[in-house]
Structure formats: C-alpha cells, structure tokens
Write a structure and sequence with these properties.
Elements (H helix, E strand, L loop, with lengths): L1 E10 L4 H11 L6 E6 L3 E7 L3 H10 L3 E13 L4 H11 L4 E6 L7 E8 L2 H10 L4 E2 L5
Antiparallel strand pairs: 1-3, 1-4, 2-3, 4-6, 4-7, 5-6
Length: 140
C-alpha cells in the first residue's frame, strides 16, 4: 500500500529531535516508523504517523521545515536473504529504491520495512505478482 511519510529538516543541535518529538507527543501523534539521515550541519528525519498532514502543520507552525512524500510498506521474511528477495523483484522490474528503513513494530518472524521507490504503483504491482505482502498504514 502507498502511504505518506513526513520529512523534517533538523539542525544538528542539542535538543532539536527532542523538540520535534515533544510537539508530536503533546498532540498525541504516535510514531509508527522513523529514521534519520544526517550530514555535518543538518539531518532529515523521516517518519510515519497516522495523520501526516496534521504532523506537518504542527511542525511548520513551530518553525520546522516539513513535508510529505509517498512510500510503500512491505512485510518480508526475517531471515538471511529476506530483504534481497524483495529488492531483487524491484531491480528486475527496473524500479529504483531510494532508501528503506524498518518500523518500530514487527510481526512474528517478519520484518516490516518502509521503502521510497521510483514508481510506487509499479512496485505494488510487481510485488503483488510475486506474493510479497504489502503493509497498510494500519498494519504498521
């Protein structure tokens, strides 16, 4: 399934991540998955929540630069080669994977991952054809 993730530019200063998570916590917004990529001066925090538009409004209202983008969620076997099985299907279909990260939750024997791909609709089609389980926002 396709769902939206929130991306926030975060300065590499003490307390900035705490400030973001406080805003979310104070507004009863629960993180389902998250990752951060950093450079010398700033990072990009990406996360999944049930109401991404509300999270973006709150963060922008508190001086952060935030936006949404589309991602897909995939359930894969939690074993050596489990990720390869999914990535090989996408590579064979010439779908680029920009980045992946795992969720906070997992199912018994399964890893739940979030993927940013070059073509979400095509990715869903080829993964479904290979019987690879896609995750909905509710399942994360």
């Amino acid at each position: 399934m396709i769902f939206k993730q929130v991306s926030v530019f975060v300065e590499n200063t003490v307390g900035r991540l705490a400030a973001i998570t406080k805003i979310l916590a104070d507004n009863n917004i629960d993180l389902k998955a998250s990752t951060i990529a950093e450079t010398v001066d700033f990072g990009i925090l990406r996360f999944i929540v049930e109401d991404p538009e509300a999270a973006v409004r709150l963060l922008i209202g508190n001086g952060f630069t935030a936006s949404t983008s589309q991602v897909i969620g995939v359930s894969l076997e939690d074993k050596p080669g489990g990720l390869y099985d999914v990535l090989a299907v996408l590579a064979d279909a010439e779908i680029a994977v920009n980045y992946i990260y795992s969720t906070i939750k997992s199912d018994e024997g399964k890893a739940l991952i979030v993927m940013k791909v070059s073509d979400e609709e095509k990715a869903i089609d080829v993964l479904n054809k290979k019987s690879i389980k896609l995750m909905s926002l509710e399942e994360l």
